[in-house]
Specification:
This protein has 236 residues and is of the alpha+beta class. The chain folds into two domains: 122 residues, OB fold (Dihydrolipoamide Acetyltransferase, E2P) (Beta Barrel); 64 residues, no CATH class. Helices cover 14% and strands 26% of the residues. The strands form two sheets. Strands 1-2-3-5-4 form a five-stranded mixed barrel. It has a two-stranded antiparallel ribbon with strand order 6-7. The longest helix is centred in the first third of the chain and has 18 residues. It is elongated.
Length: 236
């Protein structure tokens, strides 16, 4: 039986794709699961035994250390493609994880994100406060504690700087609120459009320098015409 080159390449690409899908989980939780059940399914009466192997994850709500084992109470969260629980305001419920080892409560602390692969071993009754609760139990075969998530906080800085001038004029220097004066170019624009120079300066090839204007007082606005001072009375 002969295969064409295109067919061989297609088969090779399919094998590589299947291998990538199989290895998308980190090594501790990269195990085969055979049950697509949820916490709610079990709490609603679904009969399970240790033949059900699942992959669940969520946020650690409590930890209890015993002589030869550790029990984790986990609030279920939806998993991403790599098996990491995603931040969400909805959950299917809580479940218990039995680990045949000592887990330090300072590391596996409340609020840390956790994923487990293991077999279901039934349901255990417990309480959340005064509320009776049924916890599905998972015997851990592989688990991973994900790195802590750091949230980035963005702050907006405001600079209350005002450039408003009640005595502004296009033909006179403008007072800056931070102090000092600067001259508007509008006076030169009126001579020759928007070039900022007079016809004479264009012919000579030199840029006309703005005239120096002495500082003015704010109580003497430029746009107001100065009245002629009263004439002194003639001496009789």
């Amino acid at each position: 039986m002969k295969f064409s080159r295109a067919g061989f390449l297609s088969i090779t690409a399919m094998v590589v794709l299947l291998s990538a899908c199989a290895n998308r989980y980190p090594e501790p939780i990269n195990q085969q699961v055979n049950a697509d059940v949820t916490v709610k399914d079990i709490q609603n009466g679904l009969k399970v035994d240790n033949s059900f192997v699942i992959r669940w994850g969520g946020v650690i709500a409590n930890i209890n250390n015993h002589q030869k084992e550790t029990w984790l109470e986990v609030v279920q969260l939806p998993l991403a493609g790599n098996g990491e629980p995603q931040k969400s305001d909805t959950t299917d419920g809580r479940f218990l994880v039995k680990v045949d080892a000592f887990l330090d409560p300072a590391i596996y602390a409340k609020g840390r994100v956790f994923t487990v692969v293991g077999a279901l071993s039934g349901v255990t009754k417990g309480k959340i406060g005064e509320h009776d609760y049924q916890y599905p139990v998972v015997n851990a075969e592989g688990y991973i504690l994900w790195p802590e998530r750091k949230e980035v906080v963005y702050q907006t800085l405001y600079y209350p700087i005002s450039y408003w001038d009640p005595y502004f004029s296009y033909y006179y220097p403008r007072y800056h609120s931070r102090g000092g004066y600067y001259r508007s170019n509008s006076s030169s624009h009126r001579h020759n459009g928007s070039t900022g120079s007079t016809p004479g300066s264009q012919r000579s090839g030199h840029q006309q320098q703005p005239r120096s204007v002495p500082p003015r007082r704010r109580d003497n606005p430029p746009h107001r015409r100065h009245e002629n001072p009263p004439l002194e009375k003639q001496k009789e």
